[in-house]
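[job 0412] stage=complex_fold ligand=ANZ status=START
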Amino acid sequence: APHYDFADFEARWHERWEDQKLYQVDLQRAQRPYYNLMMFPYPSAEGLHVGNVYSYVGSDVHGRLMSMQGYDVFEPMGFDAFGIHSENFAIKQGIHPRILTARNVERFRELQLKRIGNRFDWSHEVNTTDPEYYRWTQWIFLQLFKAGLAERKAAPVNWCPKDKTVLADEQVINGHCERCGSLVERRWLEQWFLKSTNYAQRLLDNLDALDWTERVKSLQRHWIGRSEGLEFQMAVDGIPDQHVQVYTTRPDTIFGMTFVALAPHHPLVAAITDPVYQKAVIAYQEQVNSLRSSPDDAMTGVFTGMYTPHPFTGERIPIWIADFVLEGYGAGAIMGVPAHDERDFAFAQQMHLPVRQVVQSTDTTISAETPLTETFTSTGIVIDSGEYSGLTSEQAHNAICTWFEAHQSGQRSVKYRLRDWLISRQRYWGPPIPIIYCPDHGAVPVPEDQLPVLLPEAEDWMPTGTGVSPLAAIESFVHTTCPICGQPARRETDVSDNFLDSAWYYLRYPSSTDQQHAWNPEITRRWLPVDMCVGGADHSVLHLMYVRFIAMALHDLGHISFSEPFSRFRANGTITMAGAKISKSKGNVINPDDYLDYLGADAFRVYLMFMGPYEMDGDFTDRGINGVVRFLDRIWQLVTSHTGSWPERPLEGEERRLLHLTIKRVSEDTPVFKYNTAIAAMMEYLNVLERKPEQTRQDIETLITLLAPFAPYITEELWARLGHSDSVHAVSWPGYDADALQQESMILPIQINGRVRDRIQVASDTPEDAIKQQAMVTEKVQKFVAGHHIAKVIYVPGRLVNIVIN
Ligand code: ANZ
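[job 0412] stage=complex_fold status=DONE, emitting structure tokens
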């Protein structure tokens, strides 16, 4: 533990900062607004974990730097307090989520977030469960509904049997619930969707110009999953009026098709199945319903008994149904080309279907004669494909697309993997979706002046498992009247996805006290979009995709002037413990409170920022904490042990150079989140200072100023002890003089056997060996020593080099 009494001055400064409103900006009048955002936490019962603190502190260092560089920095914090995670914990504890959430929020704010030393402006706190907040979440839903961007449809959905609710695709990880890990099932339910797919191309295109962490952008590109291919019709033998549409990205492989497969619940399955096979097909559909096989399981499927003629050869191709074919993607049906597609190959192996190679490597050493033992998924030269043989894959792709277009039985088509965002949740703890069902008028929006639709107090708030929310059992909530005709009507009883709450919170912070608008137009113009957002990359395709979609939609509907919410985004690294990500669900949570108690906020902050490059993942270990504690102890010692006044003489020469070099390094590394090397530069500088016979006021004050964003308390305390009455956090960031960085140089005479023969110019801190080496190689010296034996080279520091020859 540190030797200084951090507990004393942390509490004192925290209070002083709050009294002075040091971190509150005048949002109306700020001249150089800088919106510094971090992702607000779920106030779960376990409290903040070290990953949260890591993320928040790194973001705060950035905010503090920008503030010292002259910006009016707004750094708000709030609570993402609705949703399954909060509710699940309430279930475990048997405590009503409203009570538990309020308790946790209080604890997060008072006992944790206020201790980590961040410059939060608590006067703009938001809480998504506050009716004054979710009133606007509902309002946003209504704007989308009125614009046709919210739609109710029956769809096969991901159903989590444990959480007893549906999940969005983004919340299903490898077939399992993102929250509780249960294997997800498939159900048909009427659900509300937000039409994010309308924005697929823009979500993709805008990424190029966004200054965001590259790996997050690439995850988003992958998730949007744009592909260009061919959608074409295939006839069904014996059923002249039915066609199956298939989608392929590889029309060049069409001659290698040996089967066609439909998704298990493709609408045509019943119509095209041979009666003899019907029983087997229905049994298979039921099997698929009851449990969704995880992706590494064996391929399953069933033959329909029917065939389709190959569009070019007329060969009879069997039609199967198979669950590796996805319902909502492409056309929901595929042409199976086992030779050139991994999944098709696995399926063909399982079902004993032929494999027919039709693309060959341009690398001729691989012969088409050797039968394929694995798939050849690359492009190459097309073979055994009628008139297309000999073309490159690309040429064949084009020619075959053109053929289908000419025959009007297919067209080039662009598809996206992105799905519409399913936002209905059959749960209690969320904002009710503001819709009323009228027997005559259908789904009618709740009039805006009746918002919020309050979440009713309920005794029975536990998930029901029946496919409806607990709200459906609250008669007084359900029964209402139609806003259009006044006759009895029913309210929608599902609540909306917690990710809708967090898709717009950044808009609310600056306007958190505005009662008239979700966001005040004038303040929003001044402060948004967000200048810098920092958060975990684990939200790349969840929160960070939703927040972009909602901003685009609000922009198009005329509610905001920008369509990208975050000008810059940086993903902090994920902190792991011996390889496993630290998370509540894994149970390996390091309690930051212990570290705060034991080390104080400053040492914990500097330690976290010194562990490694901020944007890289890293292991959390206690190793290295001592070094950081010693560093702060030594600074404390240096300042507090000093007696009398500090010398104020101007710095000169090398001492000046080292000071400016340190400012330069810290100033360059800090804004680009290379916090570890910035700290290393300060550590080196402390070594220099300690060796100096006498430190000046400038030496000490510069070091304290540079350290202030990282260690806000100790620097404030030392700043005061140096005699300042203003805060170190209100001081301007120091600049450096480029000319001071020039290394001092000296001219050294070179003697040979005592007589001066040449001179060299070297930087004054050049090591002895290097000086001797340079002295030996000058042209003149070489001339004099040629043919002689060199007996000795003597360097008299700062004076001369003497070479002794014989
Ligand atoms: C034949 C083929 C041959 C294919 C080949 C690939 C390689 P992306 O790039 O992700 O868009 N596909 C199409 N619809 C599908 C669905 N509903 N469920 C599962 N798979 C589907 O992938 C497009 C490819 O994925 C398509 O091209 C199709 O397989 C498959 F050598 O068609 B391909």
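Residues 138-195+420-498 form one domain.
[job 0412] exit 0
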